[in-house]
């Protein structure tokens, strides 16, 4: 099933030391196979450019950052522009 891995993943396979592989009971080929499966899974499940965003819910926070118990669904804003910021403000 060999695929061309993105450079960052190829570097993981190439740069894994024998000691690191041995400690985990893996061969370089097993590591490559594991990463290939993950890359293929992510490619299949990830939304593509132009796809509708998957619906999800997030809990509202109050002005102090405390949880409110109220939830917002992305689908509530269907047809409206929505900007999403992912990160931590803590």
Major sheet attributes: 2 strands, antiparallel
Unreliable runs, pLDDT <50, ≥5 residues? none
Helix content: 25-40%
The count of DSSP E runs of length 2 or more, i.e. the number of strands, is: 2
Structural class category: alpha+beta
Distance between the termini: 43 Å
What would the average pLDDT be, to the nearest integer? Answer: 90
Oligomer: single chain
The dominant shape is elongated
Strand content: 5-15%
Radius of gyration: 20 Å
Give the SSE string: HHHEE
Number of helical regions: 3
Identify the strand order in the major beta sheet: 1-2
Question: Can you describe what's shown?
Answer:
By secondary structure, the chain is of the alpha+beta class. The chain has a domain at 7-45. The chain is 37% helix and 13% strand. The protein contains three helices and two strands; from the N terminus they run αααββ. It has helices at 7-15, 18-23, 28-45, and strands spanning 57-61, 67-73. The chain has a two-stranded antiparallel ribbon with strand order 1-2. Strand 1 (57-61) and strand 2 form a beta hairpin. Helix 1 (7-15) runs antiparallel to helix 3 (28-45). The N and C termini lie far apart (43 Å). The mean pLDDT is 90.
């Amino acid at each position: 099933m060999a695929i061309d891995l993105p450079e960052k993943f190829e570097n993981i396979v190439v740069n894994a030391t024998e000691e690191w592989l041995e400690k985990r009971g893996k061969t370089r080929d097993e590591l490559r196979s594991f990463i290939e499966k993950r890359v293929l899974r992510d490619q299949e499940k990830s939304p593509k450019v132009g796809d509708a965003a998957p619906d999800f819910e997030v809990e509202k926070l109050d002005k102090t950052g405390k949880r409110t118990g109220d939830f917002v669904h992305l689908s509530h804003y269907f047809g409206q522009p929505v900007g999403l910021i992912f990160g931590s403000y803590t």
